[in-house]
Each structure stands twice: as C-alpha cells, then as structure tokens.
Amino acid sequence: MKATVKWVDGVMFLGESGSGHSVVMDGPADHGGRNMGVRPMEMLLLGVGGCASFDVMSILNKARQGVSDCRCELTAERADEVPAVFTKIHLHFVVTGKSLKDAQVKRAVELSATKYCSASLMLGKAGASISHDYEIIEE
C-alpha cells in the first residue's frame, strides 16, 4: 500500500491514495489553516470507522442479514499533552434492516473488534482503549 501527501500551502496538504483518490487535509484558522479539509487525526478516526464498518457489513452480508443501513458513530478522547494521541475510542454501530438477528449483529461487531479491523486493533495495541456496541433498528 502506498500514499502520497503533498504540501499545498500554510497547513493544507493534499493526500493521494495508491488507488488514486484524493483528500484535502487542513487546519483551523488559528493554526494557519483555512478549514478547507479534515484534520489528520479526524481522518485517522474516520479510517477506524470505515475499516470496522467494512468488516461488519461484510460479515452481515455473508450471514444473509437483510441490512438496509449501517452507520458507525465514533467518539474519541485524546491525551492533553503532546503527542495528543487517542486514549479512548468508542464505536457505536446502528444497524437497520428487516428481521435482523441480534446474535448475528453482535457476532459481526465482536469479530471486527477482536479479529478483523486492522485500524482499531493497531490503535488498541498502541494504548488506546477501544470499545464497541451496537443497536438494531427494525424497519
């Protein structure tokens, strides 16, 4: 896997993934930015949510669950001192569908948390406390 991050100006950078997709990263005005893109740590948090959501949906699709919507709501806390690493991350999955089995959703979230989500497992090994839960909304 490869990526490139190119400085634009001030504290704005353009990231390009190896697959050819781009994203703007920028800081707030009080740090020399123009607030034109996500902050790098926000992107890291979004990556955790995307990685875990990919796992959960893949597992639920293989289990033939009738999912019509899935979102991952993330909350995080960071250390007060530099480096301001993530100290706590919570992933709350909201899964919507018809006749979803609680055991299948629970299993999907647990497998992502303990076996498949490289991003959350990596941050957990680095010292962040990572927790997961879920709710099911019946259509």
UniProtKB/TrEMBL annotation:
SUPFAM superfamilies in the record: OsmC-like (SSF82784)
Pfam families (UniProt xref): OsmC (PF02566)
Segments forming a coiled coil = none
**Protein's UniProt name:** OsmC family protein
